[in-house]
Amino acid sequence: MISGTRNRDAGSAPDHGRPIAVPQLAIHKDFLTEFAALDKPVRERVAEVFTKFEQATHTGLHLEKITGARDDRFRTIRIDQFWRGVVLAPESGDTFLLLRVLPHDKAYEWAKTRRVSVNTATGRIELRDVAAMDSALPQLEKMAAKAPERLFAGVSDAVLRKLGVDEQTLGFARTLTEPFQVEAAQSLLPPVQWEVLYGLAAGMSPEQVWEELGAQITEEVDPEDLEAALRRSPERVLLVEGPAELMAVLASPFDLWRIYLHPAQRSAVEASYRGPARVSGGPGTGKTVVALHRAHRLARSGGPVLLTTFTSTLAEALEANLALLAESSGDAEAAGRVRVEHVDRLAHRVFREAHGRPNLLVQARERELWQRVVDRLGVDLSPAFLAEEWRQVVLARQVGSAAEYLQAKRTGRGRALAPTKKAQVWQAVWEFQKELSAQGLWTHETVCEEAARLLADRDDKPFAHVVVDEAQDLSAHQWRLLRAAVAEGPDDMFVVGDAHQRIYGPGITLGEVGVNVRGRSSKLSVNYRTTGEILGWSLGLMRGQAVSDLEGELDSLAGCRSEMRGAEPSVKGFATWDAELAYLRETVGAWIDAGVLPSEIGVSARSNRAVEQAVLALEEAGIPARALARGTAEGGGVAVGTMHRMKGLEFRCLAVVGAGSGQLPEPRGLTPEEEDPGAHSRDLLRERSLLFVACTRAREQLSVSWHQEPSPFIEALLS
Ligand SMILES: Nc1ncnc2c1ncn2[C@@H]1O[C@H](COP(=O)(O)OP(=O)(O)OP(=O)(O)O)[C@@H](O)[C@H]1O
């Protein structure tokens, strides 16, 4: 930025001909979402006006002062005959903040009632509707007069101020008497100040609230220094460096991640690590974005890089996004040094190169084989139990003999087995494995193990760096494959994931598979996808659950937050499935009527059958819909998919249907408690995580419904 002469207009006449410095444009991120919805000619005019805005050295700026504004730094700028931009002009410095583009009258109306301020605890900018806050006060005062006690009576003004609560919010807070009033005020108050009050009302100490803010800054905050505040507010504000960047931002307003990273994301992308590193974070905090940038950056400085994930659909999405990133950065050559491949595909490729195509054992045949072994040995063990024991203990821990099996840890396998039982299990496993090798049969797991062995024997590793997305779902043999695909050394492995979203696999610790990330872990906490309302509700689904992270520690989603605001999720039960489907048609129809494109809408259910029925129900109402199946993440119409298929996707509006007690947890997805209590509770957690994953795919609107009784996962949130 070129700083220089102060550039401030006065009076309602436009400024012309004054000597001014080159202004820098900052854009409020909410505007970008809004921008995408404007008609094309308006979008083009906006781009034209603000490109010139940046070059306004000689012409001066056509900024109109707003009479009667609550914040006298607000100005409007003419877009065309009907449309106006609302801009915040600083009292000092040259950074202008573009807040909205609205039709003329609405722009003035909006600008008159809003105020921008600097939060004294975080040093970041805040935007509020001053008039709405003021008009809520008289009623609150009236209610408070009758109440025996005020909600924050035990917290002094000084403490509230230290936590960044300013005069207007303080006045508001002092009228509150009940915690529900704080909840109701969410859309009124500046988000961070609301979080402070919400935390205190929920019984947190001021110290805990301070900790949760997680944004304390060491420098003194000058509430008048808007320029410094804008620089400290990367979650809310994008500082645009020149017209080319402005054009890039406006060309793909939903793809900001390509050019802008939050400092916490950037430092994970750019750091040099002495060995494997890990980034965790709640849903929508940009872990995939970080993985993409990291892979691209590593490829720029050499490569080859493997960018991998759990499923083929996710790998396709990574590949498409990597291409976008390469396009924005103008470095397609580096992207060419990144191989995007899901982990099973890598395993099969390595296997095939050495042995040709494997003869794969299909699931039904596997069951038959186990049954045959059980019958032959006459043991009292179920084929399902043996199959799990083989995968989760024998294969996962690379158990090669009866003696090793007797000693092997069986974490997560529930009931302990007596040594005589263990001997029977081992006998069955041994027979099963003998059968596999006699018939030349492979499973995905054994293919992966063999591929890992082949790579471990190679001195010339195929990759210099491995970057893993959705790491929480990978199993032990997949980790061993990845470990073997890259030599140990600086920046060898970079893994991102969220243990709360684990919906496959038993959950292993990285240490067990030779990936040591100790001391090289970081966490992202700002959600860029979802409104605070949707995120808050969804986090409630996981509250109180003990979830282990990839290092075996208790994972926490505390501090995961969104600064976007929107409608509360709609959460509703119905008597019958038909009534629920009718509600789905109505909800989706209303979203479309409000201007949301069918392709921006998602519907999710637990089972394939419910997905099919939801597709039919929408089609009957003339709403284009498609069932998400392998490789069909893109396309027109409302996307309807199982909760498993929702992973990695996102929608402006999302309806989760069939969230009833008979469907969620899916009874067939649970190991019976009496058979294995450990596996049972793990299955339950996985079912809960499925709902969590589904709900956190919504960007702006979330509807959750069921028929008959609600799922127990939701029930706790209804009281
Ligand atoms: N720095 C950023 N600026 C703008 N948008 C961002 C940024 N980082 C992430 N996003 C957006 O936030 C959304 C979520 O990002 P991403 O998918 O990387 O999150 P995630 O942590 O991998 O999510 P999940 O674990 O829920 O799948 C995406 O729409 C992405 O474009």
UniProtKB/TrEMBL annotation:
<feature type="region of interest" description="Disordered">
    <location>
        <begin position="662"/>
        <end position="681"/>
    </location>
</feature>
<feature type="binding site">
    <location>
        <begin position="281"/>
        <end position="288"/>
    </location>
    <ligand>
        <name>ATP</name>
    </ligand>
</feature>
<dbReference type="InterPro" id="IPR027417">
    <property type="entry name" value="P-loop_NTPase"/>
</dbReference>
<dbReference type="GO" id="GO:0016787">
    <property type="term" value="F:hydrolase activity"/>
</dbReference>
<dbReference type="GO" id="GO:0005524">
    <property type="term" value="F:ATP binding"/>
</dbReference>
<keyword id="KW-0413">Isomerase</keyword>
<dbReference type="Pfam" id="PF13361">
    <property type="entry name" value="UvrD_C"/>
</dbReference>
<dbReference type="GO" id="GO:0003677">
    <property type="term" value="F:DNA binding"/>
</dbReference>
<keyword id="KW-0067">ATP-binding</keyword>
<dbReference type="InterPro" id="IPR014016">
    <property type="entry name" value="UvrD-like_ATP-bd"/>
</dbReference>
<keyword id="KW-0347">Helicase</keyword>
<dbReference type="GO" id="GO:0043138">
    <property type="term" value="F:3'-5' DNA helicase activity"/>
</dbReference>
<dbReference type="Pfam" id="PF00580">
    <property type="entry name" value="UvrD-helicase"/>
</dbReference>
<keyword id="KW-0378">Hydrolase</keyword>
<dbReference type="InterPro" id="IPR014017">
    <property type="entry name" value="DNA_helicase_UvrD-like_C"/>
</dbReference>
<feature type="domain" description="UvrD-like helicase ATP-binding">
    <location>
        <begin position="260"/>
        <end position="531"/>
    </location>
</feature>
<protein>
    <recommendedName>
        <fullName>DNA 3'-5' helicase</fullName>
        <ecNumber>5.6.2.4</ecNumber>
    </recommendedName>
</protein>
<dbReference type="InterPro" id="IPR000212">
    <property type="entry name" value="DNA_helicase_UvrD/REP"/>
</dbReference>
<keyword id="KW-0547">Nucleotide-binding</keyword>
<dbReference type="GO" id="GO:0000725">
    <property type="term" value="P:recombinational repair"/>
</dbReference>
